[in-house]
Specification:
Length: 497
């Protein structure tokens, strides 16, 4: 069975691949026939034979719709086709497919009654940059109000495939199913597009996987490959030598805040231990040590009084990583402690207060980072460190990519569509996180998971990517009503899965 690769490609990249495929000898008409047949297959898998209205625009998306109509009719569906737009300007391939359709056809009118149990949206593809015509806008709103399911070819009409949002002037609406081809686009994995696409199925239309490599060789195309980090991909297992001792499995240090704010550090530490770090030590001030020692068992505690104490704790040459920021406080002392931690040149996760404390002076932080560092901001923290980047970026992918280049470190932009970016341009989008992970302390657990992966030798980008996946998996295992304290105990199950 064919499975799509993990790459997520932009609208322009897909267009470039279509051109490469044509140059390699596969006619566009063949791809169109394959695409429409696959749409019909996906519909037949989910719905019994019923009344179907296929709405076709004048572009190649409409050509796919003509093919889908023909194949659905052959399967016993009662199909009617409605055309919208100037089909005299259609491509030769779309015109060819229109000529092959012999069933009932009418010109689309929003005033016509909808006599269908299912609608196929073959009006506009993912490159649309203008608002939907008012009659179509009204049509899709009626379908949604009447709960008539819509199958979108590629993306719902009115949505741009790169920005993951609807074009200005178009009212958002949701498809039940979106059938796309070869690889997903940003709109299929980023919010809010992911919600409006419904179930997303990526199907084979005869484009070889080698076309991704061919795309990368094109000098005029931005061929940065994105990766979807979702349930279709596995998290690499950390292979443990049967003869290994605990120090060989990595030591994760977590820097604690004051005595009244130790909970975040404890959550991170427990998550790091459950994720497989051989040892975990929480570094606390003299005042915080009694609180830490009273609440931790397998996790060790160690005090730091002088700045050099932090450097000394991290001077052991054996594998180690650090988590700094959860509950640390936004103070001059915190800023100094971060500087001492980073001077040890260990792989480090910087979260929460370790990011906010540099608001107004991000270059000071960036100058101290190493390639082994991972920054894990939510949107507010991201805007403090990278002011204006989100506002001017076309989507969260480009924002995270620019931030990673500025910081020369891995950046994990948290959210329902967590985006992980490396300084070299690689990007992963995590899509398995349930909404109930949006709870206090959840991010501290994520920081601890990533810290443990770093301590076990996983490179920064990969550790952030696998950490986000495991965090999402734990959230799904916990279900609604979870609190952050539930998550560490679920990590063994998530790792086993």
């Amino acid at each position: 069975m064919w499975h799509p690769g993990p790459e997520i490609l932009t609208v322009a990249q897909h267009a470039a691949i279509d051109r490469l495929v044509a140059l390699a000898g596969t006619p566009v008409a063949t791809l169109m026939e394959n695409a429409g047949r696959q749409v019909a297959n996906q519909v037949a898998l989910r719905w019994p034979a019923c009344r179907v209205l296929v709405v076709c625009g004048p572009g190649n998306n409409g050509g796919d719709g003509y093919v889908a109509a023909r194949h659905l009719e052959a399967r016993g569906f009662a199909v009617e086709l409605a055309t919208i737009g100037d089909h005299t300007k259609a491509s030769p391939e779309a015109t060819q497919m229109a000529a092959l359709w012999k069933g009932p056809t009418r010109v689309f009118s929003a005033d016509d009654s909808i006599r269908a149990d299912l609608v196929i949206d073959a009006v506009f593809g993912a490159g649309l940059s203008r608002a939907l015509p008012p009659e179509l806008d009204h049509f899709f709103s009626i379908l949604e109000a009447d709960d008539i399911p819509v199958v979108a070819i590629d993306v719902p009409s009115g949505m741009h495939g790169d920005t993951a949002g609807f074009v200005a002037g178009t009212r958002p609406w949701s498809a039940k199913l979106s059938v796309t081809f070869f690889r997903k686009k940003p709109a299929h994995v980023l919010m809010p597009g992911r919600l409006h696409c419904g179930e997303v199925v990526c199907v084979d239309i005869g484009i070889g996987d080698g076309m991704v490599r061919a795309l990368a060789a094109q000098p005029l195309v931005n061929a940065d490959a994105l990766q979807a980090c979702d349930e279709t991909l596995s998290v690499p297992r950390v292979v443990v030598d049967p003869l290994a001792h605990k120090h060989a499995r990595g030591h994760c240090f977590v820097l604690s805040g004051p005595a009244t704010s130790t909970g975040a550090a404890r959550l991170a530490a427990e998550a790091a231990l459950r994720t497989g770090a051989g040892l975990v030590t929480v570094l606390g001030t003299t005042e915080a040590l009694p609180v830490l020692a009273a609440r931790l068992t397998a996790v060790m505690v160690r005090g730091h009084v002088q700045p050099n104490d932090l450097r000394d704790a991290l001077s052991d040459p054996r594998p180690a990583a650090v988590v700094v920021g959860p509950g640390l406080g936004v103070t001059a002392a915190a800023r100094q402690a971060i500087a001492h931690v980073l001077s040890a040149r260990r792989p480090t996760v910087l979260d929460a207060d370790a990011l906010t404390v540099f608001e107004g002076d991000p270059p000071e932080l960036f100058a101290q980072l190493t390639p082994g560092c991972v920054l894990t901001p939510h949107v507010g923290e991201f805007n403090r460190l990278f002011p204006g980047v989100l506002a001017r970026a076309s989507n969260r992918i480009e924002a995270a990519r620019e931030a990673a280049r500025k910081a020369a470190a891995t950046v994990l932009l948290k959210g329902p569509d967590t985006v992980i970016a490396a300084p070299d341009g690689r990007v992963a989008i995590n899509t398995n996180a349930p909404p109930w992970l949006a709870t206090a302390g959840s991010g501290d657990v994520l920081a601890g998971i990533i810290g443990a992966r770093l301590a076990q030798g996983e490179p920064a980008f990969e550790a952030a990517r696998s950490g986000a996946f495991l965090h999402g998996k734990c959230g799904s295992l916990a279900g609604p009503g979870l609190i952050a304290e539930d998550l560490p105990a679920l990590l063994p199950r998530a790792l086993a899965a």
